[in-house]
Amino acid sequence: MDQLVIESRGKINRGLKILGKRPDGYHNLDSIMVPISLKDTITLTKRDRGLVYESNNLDLAWTPDNFCKKALDLLEKKLARTFSLAIQLEKRIPLGAGLAGGTANGASILKGLNQLYDLKVDLEDLQAWALDLGADFPFCLYNRPARVGGIGEKIQPLEGKKEAILLVNPGYPLSTPEVYAWYDQDMDQGIQDQVINDLEGPVLRRKPQLVQVKESLEATGAYEVSMSGSGPTFYAVYKSPDQRDRAREKLEGTFEKVLACSTAL
């Protein structure tokens, strides 16, 4: 096999509770993570020598903060070898959106190279290696509904069902480390929120324009509305695709990105 095409799916956090900050600066969490049908596509092609990378998103250059590069560098270091290949990334998941798009891309590189080159690295080893790259990596490598704990390394499989989802993204990214710093600041001041995502309150206090996103989704009759991950994307869950599609028609034109998708099992 000389080429492999991979679907790199995003995820939503259906609840995110922060259980405390560790001495190393990471946060212990308890979250339900679910893959969604919104996905990027990565094509890996073997080459005789050298690396070629291209993406339809010009903001995703081959720089040290590119998760595809991070994943490739990690695998080359762990296996003490160099890969000659072409990486083509077709990006659809918004950047810095709280949907783990970049992490999903990195996870796809790890799994894809493992398959393309028949490396025979166990999933558990990939998850352990990649944890230093980001807390969402173990889940994105697992890529099925799960309850996630620790700093992301504890994966408890869950049964899932297909549900209609609407995503609203304001068109700008948020930095995950910065959002967690906001949370720590609010906790130091004794500010706590009664929401299913502990990061939502700190974000809304600093980005009050996102309140309109949440309230607009709530007004469409969704039975669950919350911010995903560290934001700024909000998701809404509907009883049917028809109800979701009516909500999408209502909100399109009001917000930068209104994306219909579903949970992916």
From TrEMBL:
UniProt enzyme class: transferase
Limits of the GHMP kinase C-terminal domain: 199-255
Gene Ontology MF terms in the entry: 4-(cytidine 5'-diphospho)-2-C-methyl-D-erythritol kinase activity; ATP binding
Aminoacyl-tRNA synthetase is among the record's keywords: no
Any GO BP annotation: terpenoid biosynthetic process
Keyword Glycosyltransferase belongs to the record: no
Boundaries of every GHMP kinase N-terminal domain copy: 66-143
UniProt-annotated catalytic positions: K11, D136
Annotated InterPro entries: GHMP_kinase_C_dom (IPR013750), GHMP_kinase_C_sf (IPR036554), GHMP_kinase_N_dom (IPR006204), IspE (IPR004424), Ribosomal_Su5_D2-typ_SF (IPR020568), Ribsml_uS5_D2-typ_fold_subgr (IPR014721)
Reactions mediated catalytically: 4-CDP-2-C-methyl-D-erythritol + ATP = 4-CDP-2-C-methyl-D-erythritol 2-phosphate + ADP + H(+)
Pathway the protein contributes to: Isoprenoid biosynthesis; isopentenyl diphosphate biosynthesis via DXP pathway; isopentenyl diphosphate from 1-deoxy-D-xylulose 5-phosphate: step 3/6
Short name of one Pfam family: GHMP_kinases_N
Gene3D superfamilies, sorted: 3.30.230.10, GHMP kinase, C-terminal domain
Keywords recorded for this protein, A-Z: ATP-binding, Isoprene biosynthesis, Kinase, Nucleotide-binding, Transferase
EC id: 2.7.1.148
Similarity comment: Belongs to the GHMP kinase family. IspE subfamily.
PANTHER family: 4-DIPHOSPHOCYTIDYL-2-C-METHYL-D-ERYTHRITOL KINASE, CHLOROPLASTIC
Function: Catalyzes the phosphorylation of the position 2 hydroxy group of 4-diphosphocytidyl-2C-methyl-D-erythritol.
Protein name per the record: 4-diphosphocytidyl-2-C-methyl-D-erythritol kinase
Source species of the chain: Urinicoccus massiliensis
